[in-house]
């Protein structure tokens, strides 16, 4: 079957044993040759294995494609798009992007046509219609989101005041209660057993002292108790001293008071060490707070900043509403 | 003609027109709409802060003793100026004293502390800081002197006593610590002082002395809660007779009806008798208590009594208890309801309660 076949070796159908080259074949060969020459001038004479190709590029399957800056940019954009959009919007957009890119590429690169079928007029029109549909859908969704945002209240910049938070909670609980057929006075019925236990515990606890009351009689006594627990009682020295000293159990008026006793050095060391431990513990009484850079600056000075912090601590919860209103520009009609 | 415009007088002088500075005429604002990019107040503040410079003098290294003396002189002068301006401001005094301490000059530091105590001796923190300074530098006798003065001038500040005694104890001089405690007890302080004395004695296993101190405590503060503490101390050492005696003394106090602690006393006493497994005595105590304590203050008492009867009593005694309660608490609605529940023996709640009490009993017996 192979005898006397007129087959051009460069023809792409050369491997077909029954193919015989005709004029069309020769035309095509001539075209491909001219393209190959252009490629050489374009410096794409490398072996297919040595090209620079990003695996995510849509033209990666093309053996002669080399990824350029444009490709990388397109890949990055695609990735960003995929992350930003969600649900069906994503697929629409990415497909659309790819299509758009493909259209772009058809215009840009010269050798892409070898992989793409030629789009007929009808197909082109269909493609354009699809593009328009997608754009319309995108615009609709964006308008929907904007409208929803307008209807809801905007998130407050400085946080929600306690009053507002309480009101919202009351509303939520009210809704839940209504669904269960309960009265507002029976709101405790919604608590789980663990929540109820936690509440009982809290009621039984005394509130911890804070502010100017931190060093009251009770806390000082407790601190002293804790401190004395760590004293190591040297019973031998004690018993020895008991035997030696006639006035071991002294009254308040004993004359032994001002007498100088010989204290061994190690006891003094013990005392000094204990003092140093106390000092170290004292340092951890108040911790250094984190510095938030993203917070607004409302001070001209370090002293001013410190003052603002103190004022915020004292009056912050009362002025929160006013501050939010100022930020927004208008007061709410609540 | 006015002198200013007289031609001869103004000859050679600059005219008003010449001295006028020719400023460009301010153009009128044509477009009064808001600019597309506005600056905020916060932005202005931020820029102001960023562009601030730190007005600090450059750091200098001190190389020889002359420079050191100069630096010290300068600092001392600064400090003295500040304290001259604000004598009552203890903060600056304390800073001055700590600085002298950091320079190692203890004599000067002491003099500053003494001057400060001249100004204000009623501030216990100053005494604490002064004594701590002496202690840190291992001057024990100086520290002792300071503590002694502090405690003599401010005897009602417990913290000074605590720290004085703690220092003496940690130095190993237990006898001296005891003497200081005695001195403190002469002032009849609050119970916390007494209790810390008792703890001190118990640390060295001096039980008799601890007992004596408890006696003095209940004489000084004859409150039921301190009797209860005393009795618990005796009970812990298995001195049942003594504990009972203490409780009986407490009951002899003849407390007024309005006393909050009366109920606690009876509850504790009855609890003690139950712990000794003396049920009859416990029952007597409960009855006596219910007769003497007014209805409003006896809620705990009733609870405990009911629990006790469930544990030890037969149905007759239980009914008795319920009748007693019913008599006393006619108006209380939920109590009545509870009592109703109890009348029905097949009520699961009461069964569960009884089971729970039985379990507690078993665990107590195991221990």
From TrEMBL, chain A:
Any matching Pfam family: SYF2
Q: Where is the composition biased (Polar residues)?
A: 102-117
- The record's region (Disordered) falls at 32-53, 86-117, 277-306
Please name the InterPro entries in this protein's record: mRNA_splic_SYF2
Biological process terms from the Gene Ontology for this record are: mRNA splicing, via spliceosome
Subcellular location, record wording: Nucleus
Alphabetically sorted, this entry's keywords are: mRNA processing, mRNA splicing, Nucleus, Spliceosome
Q: Where is the composition biased (Basic and acidic residues)?
A: 43-53, 291-306
One GO CC term, this protein: Prp19 complex
Lineage, top-rank taxon, reads Eukaryota
Q: How does it assemble?
A: May be part of a spliceosome complex.
| UniProt-listed PANTHER family | GCIP-INTERACTING PROTEIN P29, PRE-MRNA-SPLICING FACTOR SYF2
Family statement drawn from the similarity comment of this UniProt entry: Belongs to the SYF2 family.
Protein function: Involved in pre-mRNA splicing.
Please give the name of this protein: Pre-mRNA-splicing factor SYF2
- Organism the protein comes from: Zingiber officinale (Ginger)
């Amino acid at each position: 079957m192979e005898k006397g076949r007129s087959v051009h070796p460069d023809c792409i159908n050369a491997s077909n044993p029954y193919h015989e080259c005709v004029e069309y074949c020769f035309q095509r060969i001539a075209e491909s040759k001219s393209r190959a020459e252009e490629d050489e001038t374009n410096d794409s004479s490398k072996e297919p294995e040595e090209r620079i190709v990003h695996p995510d590029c849509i033209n990666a399957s093309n053996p002669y494609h080399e990824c350029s800056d444009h490709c990388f940019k397109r890949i990055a954009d695609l990735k960003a798009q995929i992350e930003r959009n969600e649900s069906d919007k994503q697929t629409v957009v990415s497909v659309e992007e790819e299509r758009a890119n493909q259209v772009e590429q058809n215009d840009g690169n010269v050798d892409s046509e070898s992989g793409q079928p030629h789009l007929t007029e009808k197909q082109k029109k269909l493609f354009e219609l699809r593009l328009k549909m997608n754009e319309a859908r995108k615009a609709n969704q964006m308008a929907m989101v904007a409208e929803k945002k307008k209807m809801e209240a905007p998130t407050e910049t400085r946080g929600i005041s306690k009053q507002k938070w309480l009101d919202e909670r009351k509303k939520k609980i009210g809704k839940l209660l209504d669904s269960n057929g309960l009265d507002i006075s029976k709101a405790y019925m919604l608590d789980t057993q663990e929540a109820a236990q936690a509440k009982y515990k809290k009621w039984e606890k005394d509130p911890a002292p804070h502010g100017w009351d931190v060093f009251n009689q009770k806390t000082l006594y407790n601190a002293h108790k804790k401190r004395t627990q760590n004293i190591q009682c040297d019973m031998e020295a004690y018993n020895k001293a008991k035997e030696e000293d006639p006035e071991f159990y002294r009254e308040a008026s004993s004359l032994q008071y001002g007498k100088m006793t010989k204290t061994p050095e190690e006891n003094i060391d013990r005392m000094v060490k204990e003092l140093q431990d106390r000092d170290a513990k004292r340092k951890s009484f108040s911790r250094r707070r984190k510095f938030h850079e993203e917070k607004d600056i409302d001070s001209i000075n370090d002293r001013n900043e410190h003052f603002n912090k103190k004022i915020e601590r004292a009056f912050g919860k009362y002025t929160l509403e006013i501050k939010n209103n100022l930020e927004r520009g208008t007061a709410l009609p609540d | 003609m006015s002198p200013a415009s007289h031609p001869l007088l103004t000859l050679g002088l600059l005219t008003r027109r010449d001295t006028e500075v020719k400023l460009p005429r301010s153009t009128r604002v044509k477009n009064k709409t808001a600019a597309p990019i506005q600056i905020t107040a916060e932005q202005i503040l931020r820029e102001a802060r960023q562009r601030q410079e730190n007005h600090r003098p450059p750091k200098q290294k001190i190389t020889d003793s002359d420079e050191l003396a100069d630096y010290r002189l300068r600092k001392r002068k600064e400090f003295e100026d500040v304290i001259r301006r604000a004598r009552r401001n203890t903060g600056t005094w304390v800073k001055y004293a700590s600085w002298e301490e950091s320079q190692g000059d203890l004599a000067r530091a002491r003099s500053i502390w003494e001057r400060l105590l001249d100004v204000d001796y009623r501030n216990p923190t100053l005494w604490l800081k002064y004594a701590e300074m002496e202690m840190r530098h291992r001057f024990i006798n100086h520290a002792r002197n300071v503590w002694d003065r502090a405690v003599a001038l401010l005897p009602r500040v417990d913290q000074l006593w605590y720290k004085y005694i703690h220092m003496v104890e940690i130095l190993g001089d237990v006898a001296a610590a005891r003497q200081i405690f005695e001195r403190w007890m002469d002032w009849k302080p609050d119970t916390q002082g007494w209790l810390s004395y008792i703890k001190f004695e118990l640390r060295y296993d001096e039980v008799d002395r601890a007992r004596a101190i408890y006696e003095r405590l209940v004489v000084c503060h004859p409150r039921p809660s301190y009797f209860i503490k005393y009795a618990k101390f005796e009970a812990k050492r298995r001195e049942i007779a003594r504990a009972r005696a203490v409780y009986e003394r407490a009951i002899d106090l003849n407390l007024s009806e309005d006393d909050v602690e009366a109920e606690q006393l009876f509850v504790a006493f009855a609890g003690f008798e139950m712990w000794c497994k003396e049920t009859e005595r416990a029952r007597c105590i409960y009855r006596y208590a219910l007769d003497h304590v007014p209805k409003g203050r006896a809620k705990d008492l009733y609870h405990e009594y009911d629990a006790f009867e469930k544990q030890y009593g037969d149905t007759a005694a239980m009914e008795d208890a319920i009748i007693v309660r019913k008599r006393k608490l006619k108006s209380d609605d939920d109590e009545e309801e509870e009592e109703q529940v109890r009348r029905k023996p097949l009520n699961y709640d009461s069964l569960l309660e009884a089971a729970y009490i039985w379990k507690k009993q078993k665990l107590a017996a195991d221990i």
